[in-house]
Amino acid sequence: MELKEKLVSSFLAFENKGNIDLDSTVHAIRLKAIHNFEKEGFPTKRDEEWKYTSLNPLLKNDYSLFPNAEKSVGFKNVKDYLINEIESYTLIFIDGVFSSFLSETTHENCDVCVLSSALARPKYKMIIDNYFNTIANKNSSLAELNTAFVKEGAFINIPKNTIVPKPIQIINFSTGSEKEVLLQPRNLVVVGENSYVQIIERHQNLSKNTTLTNSVTEIFVHKRAIVDYYKIQNDTNESSLIDSTFISQKQQSVASVNTFSFGGKITRNNLEFYHEGEHITSNLNGISILNEKQHVDNHTLVDHKSPNCESHELYKGIYADKSVGVFNGKVIVRQAAQKTNAFQQNNSILIDDGATINSKPQLEIFADDVKCSHGCTIGQLDESALFYMQSRGIPVKEAKALLLYAFGNDVVEKIKIPQLKTLISKLIAKKLNVQLGFEL
Amino acid sequence: MLKINNLHANINGKEILKGINLEIKAGEVHAIMGPNGSGKSTLAAVIAGKEDFEVTEGSVELNGEDLSDFAPEVRAHKGVFLSFQYPIEIPGVTVTNFIKTAINETRKAKGIAELPAKEMLQLIREKADLLEIDRKFLSRSLNEGFSGGEKKRNEIFQMAMLEPQLAILDETDSGLDIDALKVVANGVNKLKSEKNAVLLITHYQRLLDYIIPDFVHVLHNGKIVKSGGKELAYELEEKGYDWLK
Asked: How many domains does chain A fold into?
């Protein structure tokens, strides 16, 4: 049976399996979502937005949709994937199931907990009604699929005037309890006026079995609120990720999403920003360092609807072996969005002849008083810089690594959590297979 | 220390060096002068091991060892240092981190343990003071946004840190005002000893007022056409290069 049919026919069973306590409006949303998915199906390469990324290799697998209950996973199994040097709230999911044992939640000044309880409890009904699936429902069949099977994920609700004192780490582990697993985490983040939160999200396969994750995150950023969101993508070569993140911003808010892609088989990041007010800032930063046959596709959209807003986009990529990178950055400046500043930059280095980057900036500008720019460079390592370093006694391998470090540095510099910056520096050094005697 | 025998080198099939012979002993300062396009910078790059050039004949020996099969970093480990005419900018890598890496890689190649952080810092400060380098400068990205003078001063700082046997200074005076030139020359003079040697490559006699050479060679069309003492530099300044062609 094809994956699509399997999913559609499993839907009823899923609906009847212990989800009856869900609010009826959520039921309706899910029902509509499965219909939309059934109608649209998985995207194919004929679809313009999926021209350079084929899901076909992923759809052949016979995924377990409702994996067995978690195997025994202890702190020692997961601690390497957490940032332990800082105090943080942690939300840890094992094969899609929340692990209260490994997590640290709170309801004290803000809610850092799980979506299943928010969906079930009357206390959160208003938040769910106001926000849930209100921006993820934009013609993406994969987001619809996630919505249809929505069950678990992070629920973060920050009231107004609240600085969340420590970062929140959301980590989805798969244990390989079954040969091929499909996971569909769903996160909802609501940040009230004048509030601030830092979130780190990671997906990690602990086994050699196959995992496909179809993740959806909705983030609502109210007036003058600030959100720093970090995505660490360093999964095994058996793991693929489709990550769809939708962000709605109110006036004077600042939202930054930083994506670090170093691993995984196929990774597709759909990142969409919607502006609902003036003087909004959106920052999109990413760095991909790939080798072997890894494939990362960064698809971004910034929809400027109101005047006096700005967006800054910087994606860098280093591609070795037969790896493939895709960058598709769409910026829409609608007629009302006068005085928009929108900047976009995509720089790539191809290390080997077999590596590929498809870079496509897309600007659609309907307003006349705007500053918009986009730039794209694709190059190789600078030979004269290599010689310079070698002439100082730095071996060619280390010299290359140092240059690549330097190339990615302006993205790493955007990280506001020092311990995370250290971790990313280490991951980069590991990926480049060098040991440098310092941290950036 | 350095012995160059009948050195011929090509780039993209074009012969640039056409039989260079040169011997430099420990404790000596040699200057190579010559008009544009005579092969001065090529000679510097070939000694340092730049792979764009193909050595077709002859050899470069350091302390009796033929360097021709060694990569640039290995030559550096053996004591060759090249100060660049146009130092490369490396954003994101600070001067300190760069020099730390260079020192420790060199030590690693020699089988010596890494220099402890404290000693490294002390050494960096000492050498920075020698070249009148502001401490703040050390935490800036290597050569990024540096003025011409800062770049050259930084080259000599690196030389001071690495303590090479043979320092080749390629057009170190270009782009320097007179004050910066004095600081750089003063640094080089302080680093000079009986155990090391300096090869200066320059267009002008100006630098040689501050770093006084024992020998001056004139390079023209890929060959050394005249050698002499420091007075040769003055003669060149006066007469130009035409009389030697």
From this structure: 2
Element (H, E) at B11: strand B2-11
Residues in chain B closer than 8 A to A382 (CB atoms)? 88
Q: Across the interface, do A391 and B101 touch by the CB < 8 Å criterion?
A: no
B72–A390 C-beta distance less than 8 A: yes
Name the interface residues of A facing B (CB cutoff 8 Å). Answer: 382-385, 387-396, 398-399, 402-403, 405-410, 412-413, 436-438, 440
> 3-class secondary structure for A15-60?
HHCCCCCCCHHHHHHHHHHHHHHHHHCCCCCCCHHHCCCCCHHHHC
ipTM: 0.95
A269-317 confidence digits (pLDDT tens): 999 999 999 999 999 999 999 999 999 999 999 999 999 999 999 999 9
Chain B residues within 8 A of A396 when measuring between CB atoms: 71, 73
Whole-structure pTM value:
0.86
The answer to whether the CB atoms of B51 and A385 lie below 8 A apart is no
DSSP per position, A251-286? TT-EEEEEEEE---SEEEEEEEEEEESSS-EEEEEE
Contact B71 A399 (CB under 8 A): no
Domains in chain B, CATH or no CATH each: 2-244 (3.40.50.300)
The residue in chain B having the minimum alpha-carbon distance to the alpha carbon of residue A405 is B92
Chain A residue with Cα closest to B92? A406
Q: Are A91 and A216 within one domain?
A: yes
The pLDDT tens digits for A394-420 are 999 889 988 898 899 889 999 999 999
Look-up: residue for tokens 């910056």? A421
Picking from B87, B92, B106, the nearest residue to A393 by CB comes out as B106
> Domain span at residue A419?
383-440
Task: State phi, psi for A16 to the nearest 5 degrees.
Answer: -85, -5
